[in-house]
Structures are given as structure tokens and as C-alpha cells.
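Support reply, case 0932

Customer input (verbatim):
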Amino acid sequence: MAKLSAIKREVYDRGNGATILLYNAKKKTVVLIRQFRVATWVNGNESGQLIETCAGLLDNDEPEVCIRKEAIEETGYEVGEVRKLFELYMSPGGVTELIHFFIAEYSDSQRANAGGGVEDEDIEVLELPFSQALEMIKTGEIRDGKTVLLLNYLQTSHLMD
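Our regenerated output:
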């Protein structure tokens, strides 16, 4: 074990979260959202808009319960069977958050409302061709880590073949 000495460290504990990628294998589409993220704006993203997978903080919920709530609130889709893939620390150098990653297939019949979030959230729901979403990673239009991970997982899993 390395010798420890007194070091001042900052850690931000914002709680744990969950994220889900909705996909439709028949239509070859995915559902993503676009919303303003102040941290990206502060760091030079001129519009502050970020395209990402549906996500939220767990608060006191289990990860699957959380992600089902977030899916209906943010995207308008009431998902059926969800599959948990993994849990990852996205920024362990200074943030305690552990994110639970899920995927679920969706269909048009599962659309319960228009989505868009609640309260002060201003969320645009995007149903995109899967190939376009992958291209948006290459062009820099999708810059969110959890979204890139889930889109790449979907590609390598061959669930869209």
C-alpha cells in the first residue's frame, strides 16, 4: 500500500443515477433527448444543448424504478422489459455518482404522452435512425459519455441487426 500523506481533495456527492437507451429494432431507431445543460454552456458549448439518453438521479428509488419514471417523464414512452447492462463511475476523480445503465426496446404503442420532462425541464424528444445517431458521435453532435457508451453497446451487441 502506498504511503498516505495529507492531501486536500474536493469530492462532489450528488447521489447515484440511472440512464436508459430506448431502441426499436424493427424501425432501426433510437429515442434520445435534447436539453440545456448549464455545465456544458459554462465549459464552452455555445448553446448549452446536449443530446443524451434519458437519465435521472435515483433519489430513494431502485435503479429500475427510477429509469421507468424518467422514461415516461422525459420521452413519453412507458417501457416494458428493461435490461440492466452495467454500473459505471463516469467522473471518479471528483464525483461520487455511480450510474446504472439500461436498454429497452420500445414501440409506437408504448407512447403514453409527449414527454418533455417535468417542472423546469425543457426537453426535446428525438426519435432518430440508429445510423444517424452513430454518425452524430463522429461529427461531435453527440458529446455525452453515457449516450456514446450505450449507442456503442447497441451497435456491438447486434440487437439492431
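We compared this against your earlier run and they match. Two observations from our side: Helices lie at 38-42, 63-75, 130-139, 145-157. Strands lie at 17-24, 29-36, 49-52, 54-57, 82-89, 98-105, 124-129. Please reopen the case if you see a mismatch on your end.
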